[in-house]
């Protein structure tokens, strides 16, 4: 077999989103020669336009009994926080069935423990990672304020705050519009309670952050190739990646970080991983006068408002609509209209709309493990709403796996064959 390129790298990372970039950089720091392969180039997909949060307190899985109660109401509104386009509903059934099973209380409990472990690792890994990439000045420690429109909505959230308390996550409940305005002025008076989470950080701009890591990787001698991987082949002495244009690259290890497309590559190894995409929408408004002091979460409406260096980003929503349907930007319009009614002084003209594909597994945990077919192929994908948040911790685990070391945390809950 003829292999393409200059010299054979130690590791090929497929996918230059924030997970692949962080893994590639961390491996490079350990002295490995790394080829980063992406069909479009760095940060072309979900990592480009997300809300920029390091949401370390977000340890509660999406699959909970609570969401199963809310989902029917949400699904009735085709532009509501959760939607399934009718033409995709049938294809989604196996994933939904697994999601429903993941809502069992014992699964929720074990999911919270696994997520907490990965969050703690990611939080501790973040500052050293920012220092090594020279991106420390992009970090903001402005917390998150989740707001509630009624006492009932606030009380329904309490079991999840209790679970966070058991995991030592600091937060503070505040009641009444005056107390809320101390955290964020300008909120409509309909919000009666709120919870402030201080250990929820953000990055000044997720695209700039990802591109800076790509530049540093490149400047340190990392190789970035544009090419679409179509098949992975385990070999006795490593693994190889075939591209759509016929090129084939080989290395000692191949790491799959192709976001919402990763299951397609796993399938070429004969592994079926139930990865779906939760499509999310947002609008980035030009920087204006609005004094946004913290990230705001409107949980009942499934969206957040974030302050970035590029503007104020209003977005969220979950559309379980697959990888090929065109975006429905009415979703972004609806979120923006709600943001205007919740923050009357926010100027909502002149924004740029975006849709991104969150890579999501039914139990809200990523896959971080060697492939069952070969220890030379390592999976790191499926971080759903938390790929930026967990990128530094995931990079650490990928490095452990490439080095053949015991992983820094128990990765059993993240194995590829758990479904
Ligand atoms: C609206 C929205 C808001 C969000 N907000 C947050 C947030 O505040 N905090 C947070 O932590 N997360 C957030 N997320 C989630 C986060 O963006 C994702 O979890 C994360 O970006 C996933 O990173 P990734 O590297 O796994 O995938 P991606 O960024 O999607 O990157 C995958 C890469 O793989 C490449 N690729 C795919 N297939 C192939 C192939 N066959 N060959 C070669 N290359 C390939 C793609 O071109 C792409 O560059 C949000 C997501 C959305 C949509």
Summed up, what is this model?
The chain is 34% helix and 25% strand. It is α/β, with parallel strands linked by helices. The protein has a domain at 63-103 and 137-200 and 275-360: 2-Layer Sandwich (D-Amino Acid Oxidase, Chain A, domain 2).
Topology:
Blueprint: E1 11-14, H1 18-29, E2 34-38, H2 46-49, E3 53-54, H3 65-76, E4 82-83, H4 86-102, H5 105-133, E5 139-140, E6 144-148, H6 151-166, E7 172-175, H7 177-183, E8 193-197, E9 201-203, H8 206-219, E10 223-226, E11 229-235, E12 238-243, E13 248-251, E14 253-256, H9 262-267, E15 276-285, E16 295-298, E17 303-308, E18 311-319, H10 330-342, E19 352-360, E20 367-370, E21 377-381, H11 391-403
Parallel strand pairs: 1-2, 1-14, 2-10, 4-18, 6-16, 14-21
Antiparallel strand pairs: 3-9, 5-9, 6-8, 7-8, 11-12, 12-13, 15-18, 15-19, 16-17, 17-18, 20-21
Descriptive account of the structure:
The chain is α/β, with parallel strands linked by helices and 419 residues long. It has a domain at 63-103 and 137-200 and 275-360: D-Amino Acid Oxidase, Chain A, domain 2 (2-Layer Sandwich), CATH 3.30.9.10. 34% of the residues lie in helices and 25% in strands. It contains eleven helices and 21 strands. The strands form four sheets. Strands 4, 6, 7, 8, 15, 16, 17, 18 and 19 form a nine-stranded mixed β-sheet that branches. Strands 10-2-1-14-21-20 form a six-stranded mixed β-sheet. Strands 3-9-5 form a three-stranded antiparallel β-sheet, with no helix packed on it. A hairpin with a 6-residue loop joins β20 (367-370) and β21 (377-381). α1 (18-29) runs parallel beside α8 (206-219) and α1 (18-29) crosses α11. The radius of gyration is 21 Å and the shape is globular. It starts with 10 loop residues before the first strand and ends in a 16-residue tail after the last helix. The mean pLDDT is 95. Residues 14-20, 37-40, 44-47, 50-53, 55, 228-229, 257-261, 280, 282, 315, 356, 358-359, 381, 383-389 line the site of flavin-adenine dinucleotide.
């Amino acid at each position: 077999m003829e292999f393409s390129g200059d010299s054979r790298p130690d590791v090929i990372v497929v996918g230059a989103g924030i997970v692949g970039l962080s893994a590639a950089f961390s491996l490079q720091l350990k002295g490995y020669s790394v080829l980063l392969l992406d069909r479009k180039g760095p940060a072309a997909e979900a990592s480009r336009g997300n809300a920029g949060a390091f949401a370390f307190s977000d340890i509660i899985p999406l699959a909970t009994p609570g969401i199963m109660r809310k989902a029917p109401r949400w699904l009735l509104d085709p532009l509501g926080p959760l939607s399934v386009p009718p033409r995709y509903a049938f294809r989604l059934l196996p994933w939904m069935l697994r999601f429903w099973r993941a809502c069992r209380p014992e699964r929720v409990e074990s999911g919270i423990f696994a997520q907490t472990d990965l969050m703690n690792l990611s939080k501790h890994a973040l500052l050293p990672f920012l220092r090594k990439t020279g991106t420390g000045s992009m970090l903001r420690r402005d917390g998150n304020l989740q707001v509630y429109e009624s006492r009932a909505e606030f009380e329904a959230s309490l079991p999840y705050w209790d679970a966070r308390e058991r995991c030592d996550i600091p937060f503070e409940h505040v009641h009444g519009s005056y107390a809320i305005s101390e955290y964020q002025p300008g909120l409509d008076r309909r919000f009666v309670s709120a919870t402030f989470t201080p250990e929820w950080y953000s990055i000044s701009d997720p695209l700039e952050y990802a591109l800076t890591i790509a530049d540093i990787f490149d400047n340190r001698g990392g190789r970035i190739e544009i090419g679409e991987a179509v098949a992975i082949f385990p070999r006795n002495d490593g693994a190889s990646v075939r591209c759509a244009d016929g090129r084939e690259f080989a290395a000692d290890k191949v790491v799959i970080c192709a976001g919402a497309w990763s299951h397609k590559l796993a399938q070429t190894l004969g592994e079926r991983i139930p990865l779906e995409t939760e499509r999310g929408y947002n609008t980035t408004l030009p920087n204006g006068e609005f004094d946004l002091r913290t990230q705001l979460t409107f949980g009942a409406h499934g969206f957040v408002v974030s302050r970035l260096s590029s503007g104020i980003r209003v977005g969220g929503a979950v559309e379980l609509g697959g990888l090929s349907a065109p975006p429905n930007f009415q979703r972004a319009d609806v979120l923006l209209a709600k943001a205007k009614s919740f923050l009357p002084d926010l100027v909502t003209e002149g924004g740029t709309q975006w849709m991104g594909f969150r890579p999501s597994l039914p139990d809200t945990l990523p896959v971080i493990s060697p492939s069952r077919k070969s220890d030379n192929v390592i999976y790191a994908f499926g971080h759903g709403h938390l790929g930026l948040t967990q990128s530094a911790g995931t990079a650490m685990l990928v490095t452990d796996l490439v080095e053949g070391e015991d992983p820094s945390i128990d990765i059993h809950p993240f194995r590829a064959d758990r479904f």
